[in-house]
Design brief:
The protein is mainly α. It has helices at residues 7-38, 50-80, 86-119, 124-146. The two termini are 15 Å apart.
C-alpha cells in the first residue's frame, strides 16, 4: 500500500483481507464437518474400535471448534456493525482465525490418522501420517512464523 493510507483505511483493508482468507478456508471446514455429521449414522461406524471412536470424537470436536472460531468474525461484525469497533473487531477476528487454523490443523491431522488407521495396519500408518502432519505444520506454522520481516 502507499504511504498515504490512513489508520481507518488500513483497518478496513486488513479486515477485508482477513475475511477473504476465511472465505477460502471455511468451505473446506464446513465440508469436513458435514461429512463428520454423517459418520455415526453409517453402518461402518459400529466396526470402529474404541480407540478409533475416541479419535473420531477428537476430529469432530476439533472441526466443530474450527467452524465456530472461523465464523466468529462474521457474527462479531454483524452484532457490532456501525458501532465504531473495527480495530477491536480486527484484533479479535485475527485471534479467532489463528485459533481456528490451529483447531483445523488438529482436526485434519486426527482425521488423517483415523482414515489411515481404518484402511491400513502396522507401521505404514505412521510412515504416511508423520510426513503428512509434518507438511501441514511446516506450511501452516513453521514457514510463516520463521519468516523475517523486511
Amino acid at each position: 500500500m502507499s504511504g498515504t493510507e490512513t489508520e481507518k483505511e488500513r483497518v478496513d483493508r486488513e479486515l477485508i483481507e482477513l475475511l477473504n482468507e476465511l472465505r477460502v478456508a471455511l468451505p473446506g471446514v464446513q465440508v469436513l464437518f458435514a461429512f463428520l455429521l454423517t459418520i455415526p449414522f453409517s453402518s461402518r461406524y459400529g466396526v470402529l474400535s474404541e480407540a478409533q471412536r475416541t479419535l473420531y470424537v477428537v476430529v469432530f470436536v476439533a472441526t466443530f471448534v474450527a467452524t465456530v472460531l472461523m465464523t466468529a468474525p462474521t457474527a462479531y461484525h454483524r452484532l457490532r456493525f456501525r458501532q465504531g469497533d473495527k480495530p477491536a473487531l480486527l484484533r479479535s477476528a485475527n485471534r479467532f482465525a489463528i485459533a481456528g487454523i490451529v483447531s483445523l490443523a488438529v482436526a485434519l491431522s486426527c482425521a488423517a490418522w483415523l482414515v489411515l488407521d481404518v484402511v491400513q495396519d502396522g507401521p505404514f500408518v505412521w510412515l504416511a501420517l508423520l510426513p503428512s502432519i509434518g507438511l501441514l505444520v511446516w506450511c501452516w506454522f513453521v514457514l510463516p512464523l520463521s519468516r523475517k520481516s523486511e
